[in-house]
Amino acid sequence: GADMIHVDVMDGHFVPNLTIGPPVIEALKKHSSMIFDVHLMISPVHKYIEAYSNAGADIITIHPEATEDLKSSISKIKKLKKKAGVSLNPKTKIDTILDVLDEIDLVLIMRVNPGFGGQSYIHSCTSKIRKVRGMLDDCSSSADLEVDGGVNVDTVKEVIGAGANAFVAGSAIFNDKSSVAENVSALREEMRTS
Questions:
Q1: What is the pLDDT of residues 13-55, one digit of tens each?
Q2: How far does CA 110 lie from the centroid of its chain?
Q3: What is the arrangement of strands in the sheet containing 166-168, beginning at the earlier edge strand?
Q4: Whole-angstrom distance, CA of residue 177 vs CA of residue 92
Q5: Which of 166, 191, 107, 94 is nearest to 141 (CA)?
Q6: CA gap 69, 47 in Å, rounded
């Protein structure tokens, strides 16, 4: 019941955890026609963009801190005919995306420090969501405003109210309480009533 698959790629350097690379994404893509929203938590990110594009990423999201030239990296993603996203960690200032607002397709607000699942969300990030929504609206951007970290049936209304329209849910979906389908359905129900 999900709209897309969000893939967290971590290098053990930019973030403390280590996950998958292009071969795994390529193997997964063969079994799904869903959109692959690939979040690159790797540094330096620029030289790996093409590999993840070739592996099947539909959306490639990068961190400003992981590239020497954010505009150049976004341009590379766009030249590969992929959607470009920029992720903002809880401590990343929102003005880092001012110069690229008209070039990006997605802004990902991290409500936890990236690298590990199951963290409690940082409430102060809600004001950041509101500010970024205002920035996107002010420049008539059609970019999605995505939120990752602590999104569940108890918090999704808060992030929708702040202006987000796309959500990454990990622990809320993959748990021992209910099936994946039931958890997605419960989250969608909360979204409908907000």
A1: 898 888 999 999 999 999 999 999 999 999 999 999 999 999 9
A2: 8
A3: 4-10, 35-41, 59-62, 83-88, 106-110, 144-148, 166-168
A4: 34
A5: 107
A6: 12
The reported pLDDT for the residue numbered 176 is 86
From its phi and psi, is residue 3 left (phi > 0), alpha (psi between -120 and 50) or beta?
alpha
pLDDT at 114 over 70: no
Question: How would residue 171 be classed by pLDDT, with cut points 50, 70 and 90?
Answer: confident
pTM for the predicted model, two decimal places: 0.92
Residue 4's beta-bridge partner residues? 35
DSSP-based three-state secondary structure for 16: coil
Token representation of residue 137: 């609206």
Owner of token pair 């990068």:
62
For the stretch 137-140, contacts whose Cβ atoms lie closer than 8 Å and that sit 24 or more positions apart, written own/partner, are: 139/101, 139/102
Catalytic residues: 8, 148
